[in-house]
């Protein structure tokens, strides 16, 4: 049975726990990613006739597993990796981590156990790459992405720059238009390629054959990039190691004093590098990259931008991430910016949210370059996307809806107030070629102004009511049911109690009609794509499914005035990430029948103390069962137990729920009796335990003590009443336990007899589509709730005019004065 992707990735990340203590967090990746690489190439290429990677007899992952538990495991791993590296010209790439380093891994038994546990994690059957391809939505590509993001997060501010967030990489790949190219091959270049994520995202977006080129100066990061290319099926990528500005290594084959040019370029260079001139004199650059001006000596942002421009063909397109300062800084940078703007090389600028990147928290932007038709460019398309993100730990991340909105708006050059605008060159020239986005796009929220006259005399300003025109256009008569004109022009009066506003809106026929219309749109989408979900088969690609159904949902809600289609899209994408992706991954690996089986939970063996008497480390967490039959526990990976019960055993569950309700009533009655009579002086005071609790045993014991003594008749009567309730509660609890056990047995049997059509109904209809229906309903409630909240806010704001407030204060003040005088206080 396939393991859920989310669980698998967490277990991979936990492999880093085996390495904690002896090394810096930024070094974990050098060990974990190398093992992932060896595991992948061993699974993928052993036995292949013409492999991209040759796996020698003494250089495979199975050779590593043979070392588990042996004293020389560290030395043995090094030998295996070296053999694999020598066979594939990967020396200095996959052998940079020393698996026999006692300073980092401990010595003796500590190293032996640590490395044995690390290898055992990669022996997980779910990490079988013989059936997984490193492209698009496969197991390995997503696993590598997951690990890289977490390594970057833990590596700290100065060591996480090797990774560009996947969301930003996706935006860059799409806005340069690589996915629109219909004839190949094409070339893509990254002058500071880091771990290669930008290049790979560009390649994944392309529909034609792509050749990848990159350069990276950091040895460890260059090694990551080489492994990353191989893991993603891009072993032929031409990556070179070195300082791109001082010594560019991708040169024109006919003239080595010119840099090579490419169809596309992407880059996320180090921000504001102060050492960019190290190794060369930019005033005498043999590659003629600084014809528009030499950047300032202590800031290399424009050096990278100019290198990219020089590396693009006459029709080339590129995208580069730079700090916002490049848009408005003066002096030498202003001269360069003015020249580039006037040449028409800048197609667009996208302002990103702050704190997206792992090397810095400052906000950055994507500058989109396009040399094609540069002499005809009439302006620059600008987007301020700085407010669209979600928090993820100590970083911000673009959501799916943010990515889609940016790409849609940019590719269509679609203006949107407060978000996107095509700015003419003439306007930019009038601002001395400053590209500072706030000069051209006002993203400030309109101020919520208070009306002094309304505070003085009451009523609600029509200005505030009219500002909700988007709602009144859809619900034209609702406004008249909420407001009537006041006694003076320009103001209206709420004609219902504020507490009833929400109910009036939600029950209004126009709202009901709108709600029904939106649900009908969603039902149309469900009808169109439910068959596609029912026909998922082994070998399908999950990302193809989600792309298809998500784009269709976006299109369905694309014309509504109140609901933001991107908010609806995000509801689907969030559910996909949280639940549906794991489900579909299991289905395309195992098929419907296998994926639906319950998994028996194997309890971890009890750990004994180590030789030194300390408690064992890395104690396994006990899984929470979804179903217990006798003493055997089961986990439901695909079909939740409650769905099987709801569809097939609803009457049995209802009977259990009824018993639970009766037990709850008895418990409440006993609590009430205890509260009334359980004090020290109460009739039940002597019936409590030493800890002050009233139990069946303590009540029974007290009854025996009082016996038939007439002096305790009242207490005895109450004790018998309480005892009767305890006994009834006990009987009901036994009935419930027996009924629950019987139901669990029935449910287990049902799982074993479910047919494929039944499984599909449970998964697609009862789980996925039912959950998504709830999500869309939540979006409708959120939109209508916003109207109710605003109307209520306006009603409360002007509910009590200032003269009434003054009168109330004076009245209360007079009452206080009167009370003080009666108490003998005078002032």
Description of the molecule:
- The chain is an alpha/beta fold.
- Among the domains are: about 1-155, N6 adenine-specific DNA methyltransferase, N-terminal domain (Ferritin, Up-down Bundle); about 445-610 and about 755-795, no CATH class; about 660-745, no CATH class.
- It is built from 29 helices and 19 strands.
Write out key terms for the chains shown.
827 residues; alpha/beta; Ferritin; three-stranded antiparallel sheet; 29 helices
How would you sum up this structure in a few lines?
This protein is of the alpha/beta class and 827 residues long. Helix content is 49%, strand content 11%.
Q: Unreliable runs, pLDDT <50, ≥5 residues? A: 133-137, 610-619
Terminal-residue CA separation: 84 Å
How many strand units?
A: 19
Question: Sheet bearing the most strands, described?
Answer: 9 strands, mixed
Annotation field: number of helices: 29
* Rg, Cα atoms, Å: 35 Å
Topology:
Blueprint: H1 5-14, H2 28-45, H3 61-65, H4 73-87, H5 102-105, H6 109-122, H7 139-154, H8 166-175, E1 186-190, H9 197-205, E2 210-216, H10 219-231, E3 238-241, E4 251-252, E5 255-259, E6 262-267, H11 301-310, E7 312-323, H12 332-343, E8 346-351, E9 364-370, E10 379-384, E11 390-392, E12 395-397, H13 400-412, E13 420-424, H14 425-430, H15 452-457, E14 460-461, H16 462-466, H17 469-474, H18 478-482, E15 483-485, E16 491-494, H19 501-507, H20 509-534, H21 542-556, H22 565-590, H23 592-596, E17 599-600, E18 627-629, E19 632-635, H24 641-648, H25 650-677, H26 696-706, H27 713-753, H28 756-797, H29 802-822
Parallel strand pairs: 1-2, 1-6, 2-3, 6-7, 8-10
Antiparallel strand pairs: 4-5, 7-9, 8-9, 10-13, 11-12, 14-16, 15-16, 17-19, 18-19
Helix pairs in contact: 1-7, 2-7, 2-10, 8-9, 8-13, 13-22, 19-28, 20-21, 20-28, 21-22, 22-28, 25-27, 26-27
């Amino acid at each position: 049975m396939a393991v859920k992707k989310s669980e698998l990735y967490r277990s991979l990340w936990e492999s880093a726990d085996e390495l904690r203590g002896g090394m810096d967090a930024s070094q974990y990746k050098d060990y974990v990613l190398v093992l992932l690489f060896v595991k992948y190439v061993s699974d993928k290429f052993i036995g292949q006739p013409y492999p991209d990677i040759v796996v020698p007899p003494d250089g495979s992952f199975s050779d590593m597993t043979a070392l588990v538990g042996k004293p020389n495991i560290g030395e043995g791993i090094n030998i295996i990796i070296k053999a694999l590296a020598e066979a594939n010209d990967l020396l200095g790439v996959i052998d940079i981590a020393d698996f026999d380093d006692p300073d980092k891994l401990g010595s003796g038994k500590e190293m032996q156990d640590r490395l044995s546990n690390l290898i055992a994690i990669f022996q997980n059957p779910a990490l079988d790459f013989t059936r997984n391809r490193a492209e698009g939505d496969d197991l390995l590509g997503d696993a590598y992405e997951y690990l890289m993001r977490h390594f970057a997060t833990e590596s700290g501010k100065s060591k996480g720059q090797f990774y560009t967030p996947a969301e930003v990489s996706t935006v860059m790949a799409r806005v340069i238009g690589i996915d629109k190219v219909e004839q190949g091959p094409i070339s893509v270049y990254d002058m500071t390629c880091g771990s290669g994520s930008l290049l790979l995202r560009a390649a994944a977006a392309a529909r034609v054959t792509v050749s990848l080129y990159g350069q990276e100066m950091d040895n460890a990061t260059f090694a990551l990039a080489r492994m990353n290319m191989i893991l993603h099926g891009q072993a032929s990528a031409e990556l070179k190691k070195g300082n791109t500005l001082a010594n560019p290594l991708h040169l024109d084959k006919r003239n080595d004093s010119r840099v090579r040019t490419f169809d596309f370029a992407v880059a996320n260079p180090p921000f504001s590098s102060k050492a960019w001139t190290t190794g060369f004199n930019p005033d005498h650059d043999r590659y003629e990259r600084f014809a528009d001006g030499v950047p300032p000596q202590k800031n290399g942002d424009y050096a990278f931008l100019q290198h990219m421009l020089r590396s693009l063909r006459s029709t080339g397109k590129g995208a580069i991430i730079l700090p916002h300062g490049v848009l408005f800084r003066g002096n030498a940078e202003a001269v360069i910016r003015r020249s580039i703007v006037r040449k028409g090389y800048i197609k667009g600028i996208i302002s990103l949210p702050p704190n997206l990147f792992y090397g810095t928290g400052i906000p950055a932007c994507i500058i989109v370059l396009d040399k094609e038709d540069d002499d005809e460019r009439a302006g620059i398309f600008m987007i301020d996307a700085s407010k669209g993100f979600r928090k993820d730990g100590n970083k911000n991340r673009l959501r799916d809806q943010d990515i889609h909105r940016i790409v849609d708006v940019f590719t269509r050059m679609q203006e949107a107030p407060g978000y996107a605008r095509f700015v003419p060159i003439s306007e930019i020239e009038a601002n001395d070629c400053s590209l500072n986005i706030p000069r051209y796009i006002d993203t400030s929220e309109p101020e919520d102004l208070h009306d002094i006259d309304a505070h003085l005399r009451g009523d609600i300003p029509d200005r505030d009511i009219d500002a909700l025109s988007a709602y009144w256009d859809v619900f034209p008569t609702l406004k008249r049911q909420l407001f009537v004109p006041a006694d003076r022009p320009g103001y209206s009066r709420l004609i219902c109690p504020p507490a009833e506003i929400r109910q009036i809106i939600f029950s209004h026929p126009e709202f009901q009609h709108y709600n029904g219309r939106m649900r009908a749109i969603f039902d149309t989408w469900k009808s169109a794509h439910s068959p596609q979900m029912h026909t998922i088969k082994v070998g399908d690609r999950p990302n193809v499914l989600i792309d298809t159904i998500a784009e269709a949902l976006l299109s369905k809600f694309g014309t509504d005035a109140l609901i933001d289609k991107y908010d609806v899209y995000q509801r689907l994408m969030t559910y996909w990430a949280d639940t549906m992706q794991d489900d579909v991954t299991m289905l395309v690996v195992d098929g419907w029948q296998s994926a639906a089986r319950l998994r028996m939970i194997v309890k971890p063996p009890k750990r004994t103390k180590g030789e030194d008497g300390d408690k064992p480390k890395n104690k396994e967490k006990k899984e929470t069962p979804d179903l217990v039959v006798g003493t055997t526990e089961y986990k439901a990976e695909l079909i939740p137990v409650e769905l099987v019960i709801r569809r097939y055993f609803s009457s049995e569950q209802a009977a259990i729920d009824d018993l639970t309700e009766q037990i709850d009533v008895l418990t409440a009655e006993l609590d009430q009796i205890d509260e009334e009579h359980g004090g020290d002086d109460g009739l039940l005071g002597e019936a409590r335990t030493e800890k002050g609790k009233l139990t069946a045993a303590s009540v029974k014991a007290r009854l025996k003590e009082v016996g038939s003594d007439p002096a305790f008749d009242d207490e005895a009567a109450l004790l018998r009443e309480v005892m009767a309730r305890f006994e009834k509660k006990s009987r009901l609890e036994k009935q419930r336990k027996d009924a629950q056990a019987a139901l669990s047995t029935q449910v287990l049997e049902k799982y074993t007899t479910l047919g494929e059509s039944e499984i599909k109904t449970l998964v697609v209809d009862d789980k996925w589509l039912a959950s998504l229906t709830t999500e869309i309903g939540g979006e409708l409630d959120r939109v209508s709730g916003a109207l109710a909240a605003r109307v209520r806010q306006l009603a409360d704001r002007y509910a009590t005019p200032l003269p009434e407030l003054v009168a109330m204060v004076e009245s209360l003040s007079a009452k206080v004065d009167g009370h003080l005088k009666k108490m003998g206080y005078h002032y």
